[in-house]
């Protein structure tokens, strides 16, 4: 048995393996998946000397605890949280040496929602369609972590980034999402479209990796008929029958039958990954700027 591995001691509420995802397979009904906060995952990999495509752990809310079988370098980014090695405080947002057999604990997020744990050499579970990402919608990739699971690691690079600090954006106090209206904004009343781009919504506790659900004003449809299923893009804002917009994230379905009132710019989606329930959400029509 190789000593290049991590043993999972505490899996947390939801910890998954994620990398850059598997884009290009929507025609097969396969979502893109991948780290929801891509910049945070990329920074973690840079800090430990991994290539950008290396797989990391994505934790949700209350972190995780793992024990490496050999000495590794780790970095924790994304949602700020307490990090410790065998109970001793360690740095967040910087490279940390974890000796073989020591317990690395990633604590509950102080703010934000998702933290990223990169390990030198990357997590080398078996790829599916070119990616090691866990996809909660289709079930592709490794299952979410469970206590006692063992994750193989790759060979580390000889050098990693040497930094004292690694600035990262704070989780949003208000989530501002720039949208391009359409393609189905004409299915809604003019008042509903104005409400969508002028009123404030809140992040719902029902949000997940598939979509960021909102609470707030219900958007009234002008057309009451059925819409044939059509392709769905990352960032599409679909409006189900209850009238509350849903922003599709990395594990979104590739087709859908509810009208899409607009599409969020992809560069705004990492902030959505860190928006906790109750966070105010505003949709800004980029054509008005």
Task: Provide the residue-averaged pLDDT.
Answer: 94
Task: Tell me, briefly, the overall form.
Answer: elongated
Task: Please tell me how large the radius of gyration is.
Answer: 20 Å
Structural class: mainly beta
Low-confidence stretches: none
How many strands, which pairing sense, and closed or not: the largest β-sheet?
A: 7 strands, mixed, barrel
Question: Largest beta sheet: what is the strand line-up?
Answer: 12-19-16-17-14-13-20
Order of helices and strands: EEHEEEEEEEEEEHEEEEEEEHE
Helix content: under 10%
The fraction of residues in strands falls at 25-35%
Query: Gap between N and C termini, in Å?
Result: 59 Å
Find the count of extended strands (DSSP E, 2+ residues).
20
Helix count, DSSP H or I runs of 4 or more residues: 3
Structure at a glance:
The chain has helices spanning 38-48, 190-198, 269-273, and strands spanning 5-10, 16-18, 56-60, 64-68, 72-78, 81-85, 88-90, 96-98, 104-109, 114-119, 150-152, 175-181, 200-203, 211-215, 230-231, 236-238, 246-248, 255-256, 260-264, 280-285. By secondary structure, the chain is mainly beta.
Tell me what you see in this structure:
The protein is mainly β and 289 residues long. The protein starts with a strand and ends with a strand. The protein is 9% helix and 31% strand. It has three helices and 20 strands.
């Amino acid at each position: 048995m190789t000593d290049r591995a991590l043993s999972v001691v505490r899996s947390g509420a939801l910890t998954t393996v994620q990398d850059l995802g598997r884009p290009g397979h929507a025609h097969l009904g396969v979502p893109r998946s991948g780290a929801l906060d891509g910049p945070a995952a990329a920074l973690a990999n840079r800090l430990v000397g991994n290539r950008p495509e290396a797989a990391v752990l994505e934790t949700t809310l209350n972190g995780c605890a793992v024990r490496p079988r050999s000495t590794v370098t780790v970095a924790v980014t994304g949602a700020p949280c307490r990090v410790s090695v065998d109970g001793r405080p360690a740095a967040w947002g910087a490279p940390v040496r974890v000796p073989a057999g020591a317990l690395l604990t990633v604590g509950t997020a102080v703010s934000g929602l998702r933290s990223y744990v990169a390990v030198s050499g990357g997590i080398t579970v078996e790829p599916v369609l070119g990616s090691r990402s866990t996809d909660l919608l289709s079930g592709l990739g490794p299952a979410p972590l469970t206590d006692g699971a063992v994750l193989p690691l790759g060979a580390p690079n000889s050098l990693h980034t040497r930094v004292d600090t690694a600035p990262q954006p704070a989780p949003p106090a208000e989530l501002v999402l720039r949208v391009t209206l359409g393609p189905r904004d004409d299915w809604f009343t003019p008042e509903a479209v104005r409400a969508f781009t002028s009123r404030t919504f809140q992040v719902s506790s029902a949000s997940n990796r598939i979509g960021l659900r909102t609470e707030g004003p219900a958007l009234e449809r002008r057309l009451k008929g059925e819409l044939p299923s059509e392709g769905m893009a990352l960032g599409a804002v679909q409006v189900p029958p209850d009238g509350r917009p849903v922003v599709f994230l990395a594990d979104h379905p590739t087709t859908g039958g509810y009208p899409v009132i607009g599409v969020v710019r992809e560069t705004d989606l990492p902030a959505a990954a860190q928006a906790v329930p109750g966070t105010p959400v505003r949709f800004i029509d980029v054509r008005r700027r």
